[in-house]
Design a protein that fits this description.
Layout lengths: L2 H7 L13 H12 L10 E6 L2 H10 L5 H4 L2 E8 L7 H26 L3 E2 L7 H8 L5 E10 L13 H4 L5
Antiparallel strand pairs: 1-2, 2-4, 3-4
Helix pairs in contact: 2-5, 3-6
Bound molecules: flavin mononucleotide.
């Protein structure tokens, strides 16, 4: 798809077919994560692809029982890595790490869309519970979950504010 069309047609998909993703496609999604820009190219982010049914169910419970999460063949758990960001101090840890993860995730969403795969960014979850479920080291903070699978729904585009409301040109 042409890139702007892809950007506009990506939707949060919350209903998935059970079909597994081909290994090659999973690799491409990993590449999309890794090739995003990052502050100082420090890449202060780590990702877990959870396929395990039991762990996916527990993660969904830790996300305010958003049950759809567990129905996705893969749940990507996207984490900041504070240990990598010491170069930029507090701003690095509190801001750049999250920006690094967010940019990776946006790449991931778009490559997924291009490959006909549906995703949703999930931010409403108990970080400590998810860390415990996956046994994450203390330097990692899970900040986004991304259930991922072939779509079993075709959501209508939600409203967006006008570009002139969102963007001010200063000349
Ligand atoms: C930071 C963030 C957190 C979100 N958290 C959730 C969530 O917990 N559950 C959910 O179903 N959708 C969640 N969403 C998805 C938004 O609801 C969705 O992106 C928005 O309604 C626009 O729809 P669209 O993605 O189809 O364009 C989240 C999105 C973002 C960016």
């Amino acid at each position: 798809l042409e890139i702007l069309k892809l950007v506009k047609e990506r939707r949060s998909v919350r209903k998935y077919l059970p079909d597994p993703l081909p290994e090659g496609t999973v690799s491409e999604l990993k590449e999309a994560l890794v090739w995003a820009p990052s502050a100082g190219n420090l890449q202060s982010r780590k990702f877990y692809f959870v396929f395990d049914e039991n762990k996916k169910t527990k993660i969904a419970q830790a996300a305010l029982n958003q049950d759809f999460i567990a129905t996705a063949p893969i749940v990507a758990v996207c984490c900041t890595d504070a240990s990598i960001q010491s170069r930029y101090g507090k701003r690095g840890i509190e801001l750049y790490t999250i920006q690094d993860v967010a940019l990776s995730v946006q790449n991931y969403l778009l490559v997924a869309k291009d490959r006909g795969i549906g995703t949703t960014v999930v931010g409403a979850f108990d970080e400590e519970r998810v860390s415990f479920i996956l046994g994450l080291p203390s330097n990692l903070r899970p900040v986004m979950l991304v259930p991922t699978g072939y779509p079993d729904e075709n959501p209508l585009p939600p409203h967006r504010i006008g570009i002139n409301e969102a963007v001010t040109e200063i000349k």
